[in-house]
Structures are given as C-alpha cells and as structure tokens.
Design goal:
Chain lengths: ~500, ~180
Amino acid sequence: MLDGLVLFGNAVASYLTPTALGLAFGATLLGILAGCMPGLSATLVITLLTTLTLKMEPSHAILVLVCAYNGAIYGGSRTAILLNIPGTAANAAACIDGHALAKQGQAGRAMGIATTGSVVGTLFGLICLATFTPLLGEVALSFGAFEFFWLALLGVVMSGNVVAADPLKGWVAGLLGLFVACIGQEGMYAYERFSFGNTDLAGGFGLIPVLVGAFGFSEVLMVMSEKTVRAKIMEFGSALPRFMDVLSYWRTILRSGVIGVWVGILPGVGEDMAAWSSYAAARRLSKEPEKYGKGSIEGLMAAETGDNASVPGGIIPALALAIPGSAPCAVLLAAMIIHGVQPGPMLMVENPQFVYSVVAMVLFSTLGILFFGLFFIKPMLKITQIPRSIMMPLIFVLCVIGSYSLSSRLFDVYTMLGFGTLVFVMRLYGYPAAPFVLGLVLGDILDKNLRRGLVLTDGDFLPFLTRPICMILVALVVWTFITNVPSLNAAMVRARRSVTDRIFRRNPA
Amino acid sequence: MTLSGKMTADRVGGIIWIVLGAAIVFGSWMMDRLTHLQIHPATAPGLVPGLLGAGIALLGLILVFRKGEAATPDFGPADNADAATVNETPADDSLAIRRVGLSWILCVIYGGVLLGHGLPYWVLTAAFLFVHINLIDENPTVPAPLSKHRAVLAAILAVAFATAVALIFEHIFLVRLP
C-alpha cells in the first residue's frame, strides 16, 4: 500500500513539468473539443492521436492519449445536453435528462451536473485503478495460456453481445476481426498465412491503419450519411455545480461509480453500457422515478458518473491482463505496445511505476475536465457550429497522413481505405465496429495462447475446459452465446419446460 | 427499409459470411502443416483461422435461417446517436446515399489513386479539400450549387490546412511525405 503511494507520488512529481502539464491539459481540451463534435468518437480521437504522437517520448505520448480519452468521454455530454445528440456513444444516456433540462432553460445547471458527475466518477475509478490493477495483476500471474485464450474469446463474445443491437452480428464482426489479425506471418513458426505471395500482406495489416480506417474513415462516411439537422440550444446560465445537487445524490454517485468501474473491467464492454447501467440502476432505486426522462438531475448525474468511472475501469484489465475493457482501451493498449510498454501480468513485476503513472495521467485529465468544464464552456461550444461538410474532409486528410506516417507505406493508406469502407458498410447493416477492433487486438493473444496451450498438453484440449478459472470463463462464453441465439434459447426454454412438466406430472402435488 | 427488406439484407449478409467462412476454412485446410518441422498437428498455422472461418460460416448460417425481427440497417444518424431522439428533416435516403457516395469517391481518388503518384502532397491535399468542401454542403442537393463565398472560404481553408499538415509532418514528425 505504502509502496503504491510512493510510486504514485513519484509519478505525479514526474509530470509536474511545464511540458507534461501543457500536454496533459492540451490533450484534455482537445479530447473535450473532439467529444463535443457528434461523429468524432473517443476511439477515433485516440487513434488519430496515436499516429500524431508516434515520435514523442513514450511517457508523454501515453499521457496525451489517456487525457484525450477521458476528455472525449466527458466532452460528449455537451452535445448530448445542448443538441440532444451524444458526442460519443458513452453520452447517449445523458441525452434523456440532460436535453430535457436544457429545454427547461437549465442547460448551464445540466452541464454543471455533467461536469461534477464526470469528475467524481473518474476520481472513483482512479482509486479503483490504483487499488485493483496490482491485485488483478497478482491473480493474473497464475494465468496460463489456457486462461488467456478464454479471456480473449470472452472479450470478443461479450463485446459483440453488448455493443450490437443484434448479438449475432456483433459476434460476426468480432470473429472477422480475429481472422484479420491472423493474416500475415504468425508468431510461432513465422509462417505466412493468407498473404498470397504479397510482400506487404506478409507483414500483416498494420493495426493503426486498420483502426484509423475502422474508426476514422468509416466515421467520416457515417457522419456524411446522416440526414439530420440539429436544433441547437446555445443559451444557458451558470455551469457552476450547486453544492446541494452533489450532496443530495451521494448514494447515486457512489453506486454509479461502482457500476461504471465494474462494467469497465468487463472485457469488451464499453463506456456506453456503463452509462446505461448506472442510469437504469438509479432509476430503479430512485425516490422520484417519475422525473426520469423529464429532466432528472439524479438521472443525468448517474449517467455521467457511470461513463467516466468506466474509463479508468477499462484501463484496469488492459494493464493487468492486456485485455482491453472497451474499444478506446484497445487502441490505448496498441499504442502502449507501439511505445514499448508491454501490458499484462508481468507489468506489475517489471514496471510497476508505469501503472501509477497511468493513475497520475487520469488525475491530471480529471483536473483538466474540472477546469475547462466549469470555465471554458462558451468558447468550447463554438466547435459544434462547424458544419460536417468542412470538418469531415479535414479529418479524412488526418486519417490518410496518420496511417501513412507509421511506416511511410502507401499500402497502409490503401488498408485504411479498404477497412474503412468495409466497416462503414458493415455498420450500415448493423454490424458494429467495436467487436471488430477488439478482435483485431485480441487475435494474436487468442492464436498464440490456443496453440501454446495445445503444445503444453500435447494436443489435448481437456485442460482448456477443466482448469478452475477456465471453467468459469467457458461457462460465461457458452451462456452468453446460448442466451442470445433465439433458436438455441428457445430450445433451452423448451427443454426446461419439458423437464418441469415431467416433474410436475410425476409429482402432481 | 421494410422488415422484409431487412430480413433479406440479413439473409444476403448471412450467405456472404457462409461463403467467406467456407473459403477461410478451405484456405486453412490447404495450408502447410509444417510436418517437416515435426510440429504437433494441433499447432499447425491453419488451426486458428480454420476455426474462425468455421465460426463465421456457422453464424452466417444462423443469420440465414433464423426467424423474427432483424436489426435496423438504415441510412441515418451515426450509430452512436441511435439512442437519442433526433429531429429528422424531410431529406430522404437517396440524398444521403448521393452525399456519402460522392464523398467516398473523392476520398478514394485522393487517397487511393492520386496520392504518391507524382503530385506534391500539399497541392493534392489542398485540391482534395477544395473540391470536397465545394461539392458537398449542407444543401439539400448533391453536388451543392457553386457559391463564390464558399469557394473563397474553401480555398483559404484548403491551402492553410494542407500546408500546416505538410509542414508539421515533414519538419516536426520527420515523415517523408508521399
């Protein structure tokens, strides 16, 4: 415990330089601004920034990414309140009561509540990040290839299940991502898979160009395909939070923080689910449920606390297990690897300082959110007035140069264009991008650990099913699958009914 | 799109996944098993892609044969705005398709065809931005009618942004521009 505090103190002190502070606050502001723009998701922001920070010192580059990530999740609440369009998926729940408050002339108050909820949620998540990452890392030291295989599969299955309106399509996207990760030289025998003699393909698709395509180019096309005109509310009062608003809902804040962190930790489940879960729990337990949907302070507070608490929550498994908690975390994980940090169970053994550096980064971004959220509202909102027809081509130019700059190959630009188009078409037909990206990041872990496990057991698959932690993970994967395929679910219900009928027929009493 | 239209789209999608999955399984099966290295057959390079291909084909099969309501593929607000109530304009799907189609064509011509084939980066980027901003507007017509004010604004923005990106990437990030 004391060691942790010392490491945290060292981390904070190491960032108290003008450069680091400038980068932290600048990146938080950039994240908030990007979050304010509907269509610019947190994942897109981190992906583009990953390409822009490649030449930076690793500690500074990751500082920029973490701060922008947290800022973007918060920034989306602005457009949710004023435009009734969530800036990022995580702020969809904030639309309901946030915009209702804005329509009642209380937009400033709503933004103050969103800021308070986000700050408190992140601080709660930050404490959990500092506490649980070392604990989870310690537990994960006992994990072998068998457990990591199931964890990777669980991440894709859960992400497909939660993110997509139709789980089947989410799983297809996830499996496709896993397959794309298999293309090129594999990690055990350096054998080229599905490269068809092409030297560019032999190296596999670069993670960053595919991510830029999946979240950058596809997002540009998605926004261009929108057919909406947004009614803007640009008049609002003071955004300084009222003390009583915070004090009277402390239970909701605490509960939403716990839910946010827990949902964040679940592999592949994003901030949006954290916000919705917190909102639903708050509504169920509220003393005034009739106010929900009509401008409930409690509802808005719950949604915003939940989504921001899930940001540090999602970083916990990314650091301790190298299994990302959400799509933005998947990009963050990739960026860490690019910068020479290897997350996973050995991180706490080899580089414990890094974990506390990330905690310090989240702290700085929270201070940035508090500062910009309370005092820079009006200038920030100017960005929502930039029309998409101007913003989107500018973003596309950054997508092109971002994917090219990694290794100065035009093949990476073509990769970005190809995967951007593919993901756009898939999204149009209800196949989400997040499981695809998670599959892409987890593909290597799944492939190597399945085959490593089979080498260890001389081809016997049984240990994958019989080790204690594996049994839990298998049960979760199978349960998630069965309960979401209607025909299998119906068969299960029929079987249960027939068993029940038989029992009752035999024992009519 | 009607419910039957959505179901058809799902079935077509399912067939595509079955074909793709089968092709992956076939490719994986035909892959070298590296017997000359005397590796265990269960660790052959084709194992994981083969299993994934089979999984994709299986899910495609379920998509084709399942009954009930499909998800909602549609042109409209980005999927991150799905949960919000948005004010729809009378603009129809064909306009959205034209807008996104034109945007895609311009992006592919810029990034996939012309980039790295002779034209200086900043000139090409400025030209792309100028054309894109002028042709695609918030107007209900695609391409948008030309306006002098918009053209001047687009020209200034295009040159300034293209120059800034070129300078930053070339001189700060030390990237050799395409």
